[in-house]
Every structure is written in C-alpha cells, then in structure tokens.
Amino acid sequence: MTILSGAPWLLAHRSMLKSNKPRKVSLYGNDYVLWQDSNGKISGLPNACPHVGAMLSEGWCVTKVDGSSPVACPFHALEFDSAGCTVLPSSSKPTKSLMHPLELIIQGDFIWSYGEYEPKTSIPTIMNEIAAEYEFIGLTGERQIKTDFLTLLLNMHDYNHRNGTHRQLFEIEEVQLKQFIDDGFHSHAYVAQLRKKPTLRDILKNPGLLAMPQVLEAHLENFFPFMGMVHGKSPLLSLKECHFYIPESATHSRLYVLMFMKAHARISHLIKRNLLRLIDVVIEQDADILGKLYANTPQHIKLNNEVGMDWVRRNFESFPMVIGPNLSR
Ligand code: FES
Ligand SMILES: [Fe+2]
Predict the structure, then answer these.
(1) By residue range, what is the domain housing residue 96?
(2) How far apart are CA 220 and CA 63, in angstroms?
(3) Where is the domain boundary, 66, 90, 113?
C-alpha cells in the first residue's frame, strides 16, 4: 500500500508514549514499535522480532544505568536497542543491526515520520507554533477505523454531515459554507451552522439552551493529507482542535485529536475534561457512520458545500503535485 507516499504523518504525540512502555503504530500496512526511554529519547523499530516474529510492542523496556532502555521481546526476552542490535545470550557483544529502524522526525512533543519513503511534502510549522503558545490539554477521540484512507478523509472534510451523523449532539438544521480558500494542499473553510430553534418545551427542560448561540461559526484549516484543525474562540477560551489521520493499511485508518487551549478566564480550566469528552463523542459518531457505509459507491447526488470533499479528491489524485488550486469561493 503506497497511497500518498512521501507525505508526513504525525504518528504520535509524546504524551501517547508512557515512559518505557512500548506501543504499536501502523503505517502503510507495516507495524512498528515506538517507545520512549527514561531520558525522553524516542525510538522506533519494525514490530516483528527478527528471531521468530513476536510483536515487540507486547514486550517491555529494560532500563539501563545510563537511562537508555532497549525493548525486550515478550517471547524469548531478547533486548533490542534503538538501532535494532541485540546481545545474544552466548555473547557479550551486541550484534550488528538486525532491523531497519523507523526514521522519526521529532519536533518537541510531535513525532513525525514518512515511513520508509522519501519526503515529497514538508512538515508544517503550525504544530510547533501552537505548542509554544497554547496549553496542551490532552489526547482524545483515538480510534482505529475499518475504512480506507480516502473514505476517512472525505468524511473529515464533509461539511454537511453534522446534521446527520452528529444530529443529536449539535441539533444543526442547516450548514452554510461562507468561504473556502484553496491553497493547494492547505485550505481554510469558514462555516456557519444554524441550530434548530429550541421549542419552549426544550428550554424548560434545559434552560442552558438559551445560552447556546443560534449559529455556530467554525473556522476549519486543513493540511492535506494528515491533519484538519478547528479553530475555536469564545469569551472563555481559544481552542485548537487538531485532528490527525494515519493510513494504517489499505483497509484501516487511525484518527486522533490533540487539543490545545488558551484560557481567557479562570473557570475555563474547569471545562477541559468535558471538552475532551465531547470530542470523543463526536469521533465515536464519525467512526460509527464510517462502519455503516458502502465505500466506493459511485456518487450520484451532489450537495452544496461539498467543496471540502472535492478538495480532498483532487489532492488525493494529484499528490504530490497540486494541479492548479481552483476551488476557492
Ligand atoms: S521471538 Fe523475539 S526473542 Fe524470540
Ligand atoms: Fe464528523
């Protein structure tokens, strides 16, 4: 599987790697083990042990006096360092490397990789800028979804599905795309979402509804193919909700959300956990609908506001070249 090869992928945020706890990640049909030692050094190797193939991610880490920690195989406990070398029981010297380490590009807490491919597009600086200015409030919505990558991307850039997939959550009746700025593999969408007018009965049941704006404005910024970001602003806080997408294999895709916040009031901190939970519910609904559709059904109906999906399709076909950005409106 080599779709979109040469694109960078954010395999993990540092917070997803507990110290000395190996974790499996998949990219393009290959499995890898990632781990972080006590010094904060992050390493990646193919997940199949070169002895007889046990999953290294099911093993453990062995902390050495210098703080480094090789990963130990759960089958026969051979220990592999970050270069893929081990010391065999009958020997005192490390072997030559037995595995090709996964190349990682680590920028602060962000762990990027191109897998085994030559880079064709660059890693944006935006995550470093956000991390410098905003407080990281957590990871949420992590799901492995049984869907091909294009179908996942189409869902994530579909501005109409809020009134279907997320109907009960937001009670949105109409979505208006106010502006779309097509800048090749980078785009902005400004969307106004009109919520259902609450009835008197709804208000009596839930007076909080009166405090909810009738129109939810959203600014979405997209980085093809690996990230979509929601910029949120309210009197209480500014929010950066960063959705990351990973093509695990031809049939499975991974999705997770990193949330960053700048509080404008002290009480904003109280809602962090609720925010993470809310986004988790949103992603659960997306995962649910993706499991209930016939992917690759020819599309015979076109709705308004599908420009985000058009943008995905065009870029998907032309990657790594952008053919004339022409979708701005
Ligand atoms: S399979 Fe890994 S040590 Fe034997
Ligand atoms: Fe969604």
Answers:
(1) 9-113
(2) 43
(3) 113
pTM of the model: 0.93
Q: How many CA atoms lie within 13 A of 89 on its CB side?
A: 4
Pocket test for ligand 1, best of 51, 57, 90, 99 (most atoms within 8 A of CB): 51
Q: Which whole number is the average pLDDT over 182-187? A: 97
Q: What residues line ligand 1, using a CB cutoff of 6 Å? A: 49, 51-52, 54, 73, 75-76, 78
Indicate the SS3 state at residue 315.
helix
Co-location of 239 and 212 in the same domain: yes
Which atom of ligand 1 lies at the shortest distance from residue 74's CA? 2
* Ligand index nearest the alpha carbon of residue 50: 1
Tokens of 5: 């090869």
Exposure b/e, 21-39, CB count within 10 A at least 16 = b: ebbebbbbebbbbbbbbee
- In this structure, is residue 101 part of a structural domain? yes
- Residue 196 inside a domain? The answer is yes
Query: Would you state the structure tokens that stand for residue 31, as one six-digit string?
Result: 């499995």
Q: Are 50 and 72 in contact (CB under 8 A)?
A: no
Question: Is 15 in the same domain as 78?
Answer: yes
State whether residue 115 is helix, strand or coil.
Answer: coil
- Which residue, among 125, 118, 107, 156, has the nearest Cα to 257 in the 3D structure? 156
pLDDT band, very low/low/confident/very high, at 200 (cuts 50, 70, 90): confident
Least confident residue range of 125-129, 185-189, 218-222, 233-237: 233-237
